[in-house]
UniProtKB/TrEMBL annotation:
Biological source species: Shewanella maritima
An example Gene Ontology molecular-function term: metal ion binding
Coiled-coil features, chain-numbered ranges: none
Highest taxon of source: Bacteria
Protein name (record): Insulinase family protein
Residue ranges constituting the Peptidase M16 C-terminal domain according to the UniProt record: 211-382
GO biological process, one term: proteolysis
UniProt cross-references to PANTHER family, sorted A to Z: NARDILYSIN, PROTEIN YHJJ
Region (Disordered): 1-24
Length: 476
């Protein structure tokens, strides 16, 4: 894939492994490094068809490809009781036959022209994306319109894709140590809400899906006023006309659009445990209820997650890696539209207990609440955020997906408004959100292996550190 002309600008971002020399917020001048966001955004064309379909066009004549990303505001949160997993199953079905492309016709045509294509389903949305040669734009839009608007679903394709989803469920969830139990434990925390079940759904609901219910799902949620489409790359002058030709006569659904509210969670500390005989080693998961991505605290929380857990030189990394207290730690926060979840998974070294690691995390949070974050540190975190955003400009397909998933409040400024909100976060904001959403509110889950591994691990914790680490290295 050809790189965007803006990719080279990422080299001017400060090295985030070293704090800048800034001594105050006023001296942390990052807007000059954010200039590519502003420059690129000025080239975006915004359109909305009469049927409600929102379209963004970003011409990049230097590219040899066109990248199409179409996002629908339908995900697992839209699924009623008894239909969990429908959004994800339907994502599969849209690759398996339409009015003019029966069976695998879509994939065959896309492969014939050398295109890349895929899709993903989340709690809040389903996204379809493709990268194709610039000469094939008209064909690509025809193929997309046919399958998105006119799918043909048969009992055979339903059965086939039910099997595919069950294989995916087995490989990604049920055959992995701890994953199923940990997922269900976390979902239990928001039981009774639209986010209270897994995106992939339950096996029972999936196997009960039938043609009538799936077509009703399509009719209700696959509608132009639920969609955002972004095209980036070597776009011809008649690109909008091509889009209108394929999508302008797509009628809105008569059903009322779905409405959701931010979750109201009484967050409080809890502690549970699970045992999985397949588990190779114990680990501890800690999670915190935060806020949806439209909330006024969303940017401060995102920066706090980076500062505590995600950056290469995060507080946790500096505290545990250098002291050789963890083998591994991972953080994948969820930024949903109406809720958020911060999290960290820690795998201890042989001589460290899960309690000790949990205490370290709580201590780091307490420190932020008490002392905040220095201005140079805050500048460092913002620079890391900015570097990540600028890196996405280098991939037109990644950028197309990002733009299609922009918030309604950022309709005309999808790149710069999120950065400006982030740049306005203060040290006081960091301390405030740490106290409000994190301090003494961790949902802790100990993930434990078979008894004999636990027993051996407990013994290693009592041995001198040099002995336990030697034994650990021999075992590994």
């Amino acid at each position: 894939m050809s790189a965007s002309g803006y990719a080279a600008n990422t080299s001017h971002v400060p090295n985030t492994n070293h704090a800048p020399n800034a001594k105050s917020a006023q001296q942390c001048q990052l807007d000059s490094f954010a200039k590519p966001l502003f420059e690129l955004e000025q080239n975006i064309e915004y359109h909305q068809l009469e049927n409600g379909l929102r379209v963004r066009l970003l011409p990049q004549p230097q590219q040899q490809t066109v990248n199409i990303s179409t996002l629908f505001n339908v995900g697992s949160r839209n699924e009623p009781q008894g239909q969990t997993g429908y959004a994800h199953l339907f994502e599969h079905l849209l690759f398996k036959g339409s009015e003019n492309l029966p069976g695998d016709g879509y994939a065959q045509q896309m492969n014939r022209i050398g295109a890349r294509f895929n899709a993903s389903t989340f709690f809040d949305f389903t996204r379809y994306y493709a990268q194709l040669p610039k000469q094939a734009l008209a064909l690509g839009l025809y193929l997309e319109a046919d399958r998105l608007r006119r799918p043909v679903i048969t009992e055979d394709t339903i059965a086939n894709q039910q099997g595919a989803v069950l294989q995916e469920m087995a490989g990604a969830i049920d055959n992995q140590p701890y994953v199923r139990q940990a997922m269900e434990y976390l979902l239990e925390q928001v039981k009774g809400t639209p986010y209270g079940h897994a995106v992939i759904g339950s096996k029972a609901d999936l196997m009960q899906a039938d043609k009538a219910s799936l077509m009703a799902f399509h009719q209700h949620y696959y509608r132009p006023d639920y969609a955002q489409m972004t095209l980036i790359g070597a776009l011809p002058d008649n690109t909008l006309e091509l889009i209108e030709h394929e999508f302008a006569d797509w009628q809105k659904s008569t059903a009322a659009p779905s409405r959701f509210n931010d979750l109201q969670i009484d967050a409080k500390a809890s502690h549970g445990s699970i045992v999985d005989e397949r588990g190779p080693w114990p680990a501890v998961l800690m999670a915190w209820h935060t806020v949806g991505r439209n909330h006024q605290d969303a940017e401060a929380i995102a920066l706090l997650n980076q500062y505590l857990f995600q950056q290469r030189d995060s507080l946790l990394a500096r505290r545990t890696t250098r002291a050789q207290q963890t083998m591994l730690h991972l953080s994948y926060p969820l930024a949903l539209e109406h809720h958020g979840v911060a999290n960290i998974v820690l795998v201890p070294r042989a001589n460290e207990s899960l309690d000790e690691l949990a205490t370290i995390v709580e201590t780091l949070i307490d420190d932020v609440v008490k002392n905040g974050i220095s201005e140079p540190q805050l500048c460092n975190v913002k620079a890391a955020y900015l570097e990540t955003k600028l890196a996405k400009l280098a991939s037109p397909l990644t950028l197309a997906n990002m733009l299609s998933n922009s918030q309604l409040r950022d309709k005309r400024t999808p790149l710069t408004s999120p950065w400006q909100r982030t740049n306005q976060v203060t040290s006081d904001d960091m301390a405030r959100v740490a106290a409000k959403y994190y301090q003494h509110k961790a949902v802790r889950l100990d993930m434990l292996p078979a008894w004999y591994i636990r027993s051996g691990k407990t013994l290693l914790e009592w041995l001198p550190k040099s002995w336990s680490q030697w034994l650990e290295e021999q075992a590994l």
